[in-house]
Amino acid sequence: MSSQDTKSSSTTDGRMADRVFRGVAYASGILILVVLAAVALFLLFRAWPLIGGDQKANSQTIESFTGGRSHNFWQYVGPLVFGTVVVSTLALVIAFFVAVGIALFISHYAPRRIATALSYIVDLLAAIPSVVYGLWGGIVLVPAIAPFWKWVAAYLGWIPLFRGPAANPPRTVATVAVVLAVMILPIITSMSRDIFLQTPRLQEEAALALGATKWEMIRLAVLPFGRSGIVSASMLGLGRALGETMAVLMILSPGMLYSLRLLWASQNQTIAANIAAQYPEANSLGVSTLIGTGLVLFLITFLVNFAARKITEKVSAQ
């Protein structure tokens, strides 16, 4: 076989491999859309008895869930949405700055051996099941953190969020937020660390050559480069906090109020934990009601991720 025939055969094989790879990539992308649509249709179909069924029966079911405090679906799901957003947002606020600080320490300050060990620990924390965090929070953190919340209520009680007296034991939104913050901390840290390590070396050296200190170099070169990645990491962590079930169920004393009293018990509840708590004793219409709240959570998560993509695109364009 001549060299020209060999070259032609190699080109044909390369084109075939390119077409196969492109087909697999397209199929994978379409599969994701199909799965997402299937989940949405499943939730809508199973929640349809709540949407288009007998409203009197729906009202009776919702009253049985809430002890007569709510009479329709929106009265029922409203406090759950509020509690979900409050707990998740507070967890993100607690975790964000700590996670970025750890990521910067690993990527730019720690010696190589320490940075490698910390990276392994962070990745290990991300793999721990949520039920383990729930056990740790309920058995260890709840009694251990009680004196701190009492101190916060005593000295910062003039702030409405920390108005006391603090519940004892503190099975409250504040305690749950700390546990969720620990859960999402390794996710944000891991992604931020990888983004910071990808900062162009020439940009860092240029900042240092112009007389910048190490912190100034990080502020001028590393953080601007990693802004979009930090936003994506934060939204991924927020998404996990929004859908967390077992840790919340095992720690939080539930309530159905629009309350921002973080140190009081029986104030708020999340959608996911409420589904897990109510599902075992729910009848068919009750299951439809719970799936309806799951559909609301699905929409909230979708909107959060959609907003994250838009923010990331805007930050990347700057």
TrEMBL record:
It comes from the Bacteria. Pfam families: BPD_transp_1. The chain crosses the membrane at residues 20-45, 80-105, 117-136, 142-161, 173-192, 217-238, 245-264, 284-308. It is found in: Cell membrane. The keyword Plastid does not apply. Its main location: membrane. GO terms for molecular function: phosphate transmembrane transporter activity. Part of the binding-protein-dependent transport system for phosphate; probably responsible for the translocation of the substrate across the membrane. Belongs to the binding-protein-dependent transport system permease family. CysTW subfamily. This is Phosphate transport system permease protein.
